[in-house]
């Protein structure tokens, strides 16, 4: 049977109405993509920026707005070098436009991005970069264990920093695997943890094995820390990669919305001024899943999807308010800016 004959697939018009979920419906996991870049006074959901060891190729207006919205900025080991190179690459623009930088220490003379923490085994951190950021106030925490990914070490630091702010996480844990040990000792403080959206720069793109490793760890960490919503940023293409949870999910994204005031989304504007439909892929990278959707050009109902079988790639978002995705297991979704 061809996909054209598959009765589990419904082809929609280029715009359909999708009703917003009830705010009282606790059975739906809501992801509001407008909040990714908008100012928010939400004290129960933090925004965190985590930079891994991959080149940063994101446009400066986009990266700067993510940076300014994040209350906590972390570099995983060599991510610090990538961040320094990114600042050097855009030095003239950072000097000219003060809106790109809002410093925690209010030091307007520092025209670069300065992280709050650098964490990892630090095998990729040169002494020059270490001293550079230490002078600017960055705290550095070595975790030398080779049995955990620097991504996982960073998430432990984030979890402690957000939920146990009174702890001195630099001085009060050993340099081997102390962050994980400190998490375990303070588990009572983490029973009602603060929710956070963690933007991970450098998880997708670059070496394929590192991409798969990041995907594996994000899946594992999502199970261990369900209060974290992970948003992976592709180093080579303008898209978000989300991990949707098992059950019903609603991704709130306006059909004609351009992220970051359209500063980086001009490729989605046609010559006649109309906005092109946003690409999306539903990627069962964890397990085989059964999917039902509402809000896509090609919606599916009770549709089996797996690597080596059916996969919904190069689909389009046509729902005016976003889309519903019901999945029998974790599901990665890539959504174009």
From TrEMBL:
<dbReference type="InterPro" id="IPR006282">
    <property type="entry name" value="Thi_PPkinase"/>
</dbReference>
<keyword id="KW-0418">Kinase</keyword>
<comment type="pathway">
    <text>Cofactor biosynthesis; thiamine diphosphate biosynthesis; thiamine diphosphate from thiamine: step 1/1.</text>
</comment>
<dbReference type="GO" id="GO:0005524">
    <property type="term" value="F:ATP binding"/>
</dbReference>
<feature type="domain" description="Thiamin pyrophosphokinase thiamin-binding">
    <location>
        <begin position="273"/>
        <end position="331"/>
    </location>
</feature>
<keyword id="KW-0808">Transferase</keyword>
<protein>
    <recommendedName>
        <fullName>Thiamine pyrophosphokinase</fullName>
        <ecNumber>2.7.6.2</ecNumber>
    </recommendedName>
</protein>
<dbReference type="Pfam" id="PF04265">
    <property type="entry name" value="TPK_B1_binding"/>
</dbReference>
<dbReference type="InterPro" id="IPR016966">
    <property type="entry name" value="Thiamin_pyrophosphokinase_euk"/>
</dbReference>
<dbReference type="InterPro" id="IPR036759">
    <property type="entry name" value="TPK_catalytic_sf"/>
</dbReference>
<dbReference type="InterPro" id="IPR007371">
    <property type="entry name" value="TPK_catalytic"/>
</dbReference>
<keyword id="KW-0067">ATP-binding</keyword>
<dbReference type="GO" id="GO:0006772">
    <property type="term" value="P:thiamine metabolic process"/>
</dbReference>
<dbReference type="GO" id="GO:0016301">
    <property type="term" value="F:kinase activity"/>
</dbReference>
<keyword id="KW-0547">Nucleotide-binding</keyword>
<comment type="similarity">
    <text>Belongs to the thiamine pyrophosphokinase family.</text>
</comment>
<dbReference type="GO" id="GO:0030975">
    <property type="term" value="F:thiamine binding"/>
</dbReference>
<dbReference type="InterPro" id="IPR036371">
    <property type="entry name" value="TPK_B1-bd_sf"/>
</dbReference>
<dbReference type="InterPro" id="IPR007373">
    <property type="entry name" value="Thiamin_PyroPKinase_B1-bd"/>
</dbReference>
<dbReference type="Pfam" id="PF04263">
    <property type="entry name" value="TPK_catalytic"/>
</dbReference>
<dbReference type="GO" id="GO:0004788">
    <property type="term" value="F:thiamine diphosphokinase activity"/>
</dbReference>
<dbReference type="GO" id="GO:0009229">
    <property type="term" value="P:thiamine diphosphate biosynthetic process"/>
</dbReference>
């Amino acid at each position: 049977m061809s996909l054209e004959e598959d009765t589990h697939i419904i082809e929609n018009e280029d715009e359909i109405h999708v009703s917003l979920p009830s705010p009282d419906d606790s059975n739906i996991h809501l992801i509001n993509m407008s909040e990714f870049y908008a100012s928010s006074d939400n004290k129960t959901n933090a925004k965190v920026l985590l930079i891994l060891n991959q080149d940063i190729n994101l446009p400066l207006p986009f990266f700067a707005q993510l940076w300014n919205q994040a209350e906590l900025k972390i570099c995983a080991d060599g991510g610090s070098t990538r961040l320094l190179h990114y600042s050097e690459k855009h030095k003239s623009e950072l000097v000219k436009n003060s809106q790109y930088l809002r410093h925690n220490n209010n030091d307007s003379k520092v025209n670069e991005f300065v992280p709050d923490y650098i964490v990892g085994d630090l095998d990729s951190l040169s002494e020059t970069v270490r001293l550079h950021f230490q002078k600017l106030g960055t705290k550095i925490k070595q975790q030398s264990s080779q049995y955990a990914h620097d991504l996982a070490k960073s998430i432990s630091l984030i979890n402690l920093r957000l939920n146990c702010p009174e702890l001195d996480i630099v001085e009060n844990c050993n340099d081997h695997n102390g962050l994980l040990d400190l998490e375990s000792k303070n588990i009572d403080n983490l029973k009602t943890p603060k929710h956070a959206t963690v933007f991970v720069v450098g998880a997708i793109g670059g070496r394929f094995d590192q991409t798969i490793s990041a995907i594996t760890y994000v899946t594992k960490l999502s199970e261990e820390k369900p209060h974290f919503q992970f948003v992976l940023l592709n180093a080579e293409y303008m898209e978000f990669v989300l991990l949707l949870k098992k059950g019903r999910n609603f991704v709130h994204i306006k059909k004609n919305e351009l992220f970051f005031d359209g500063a980086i989304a001009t490729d989605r504007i046609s010559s006649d001024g109309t906005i092109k439909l946003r690409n999306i892929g539903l990627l069962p990278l964890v397990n085989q899943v059964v999917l039902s959707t509402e809000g896509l050009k090609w919606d599916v109902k009770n549709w089996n999807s797996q690597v080596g079988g059916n996969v919904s790639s190069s689909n389009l978002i046509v729902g005016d308010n976003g889309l519903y995705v019901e999945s029998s297991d974790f599901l990665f979704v890539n959504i174009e800016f």
